[in-house]
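agent: user wants the structure for HTH lysR-type domain-containing protein from Rubneribacter badeniensis. delegating to structure tool.
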Amino acid sequence: MDLLREFVTLSKCQSFSSAARELHLTQPVVSTHIKSMEKELGFLLVDRRRGVRLTEAGRRFLVEAQEILFAYDRAVEECRTLARESSSVRVRTTGRMPFLEKALCQIKHIPFTMVEIPVEAYAPFEDLRKGVVDICNCYAFDYDPDIVQRASAFGVRAVKVDDARLCLAMMKSNPLAGRGKLSRRDLRGATVMIPCAKWFDFAKAEVSHVLERDGSLGLKYWMNPLASPSEYRFMDLGSAVYLFARNVDDSSPYFFDRDDVLIVDELDGDPLMIDEMIAYLEDNPNSCVHEFVAALEKVD
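agent: tool returned. relaying tokens verbatim.
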């Protein structure tokens, strides 16, 4: 369904870059998705020789795609209404969530279920907007106006639940690994790997906030979506670095177990930190969701 929405949005915007901005994706990602659709369908949807214009087959496909999406959205909304009759709070699990362990005494009376969803399944906050889950974890984003605007448009509120200690991973063959204690200036012009596509812009803003602060280091970003966290066990970062949360990200145990990777958790002598948050819809009709969030806010 996401690919159909991308195609419909592209047909409306008549521009890959404009469609990417509306979808909160990058232009190369949208272009790749449309090409994949065309390959699967066996015919061209877009005539790229004339800017972005639909082919005759593309125009016919657009009509059917809009009808499919309308029927799908109506069915989802009806089923979502039925699901809300249940009081159980659905919490998305992406990586580990140490703050939940701290809060078990405060939330054990609230019915909740853990919903395991891969990072690449939804763009930021889409799982909340679509009613797939009631609560998801993320990192602070109040420093990025675009993400703040997206959250506001969806009616998302985020509250801090923990402090996340961050680490930089790099191959021991990376020239940075031989510099001893690193400063931010050492990272000037460095390449940072981001292992996801749909969360690329979110992760890029997070990395820039933590490492650059003022955007003066000229960091470069390498989008490298991974199919499974187990790939961290053997992947070669090359000359790139990777920022991850020590006690949260699935990548953490794999990197710490490797002899060919150096882990750095300080820059300029200061620990790398970011606020860990939970996000939810303010107008969620399930009172248990708001009770759940209030309980987590009280945990030290």
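agent: one observation worth passing along. The mean pLDDT is 88.
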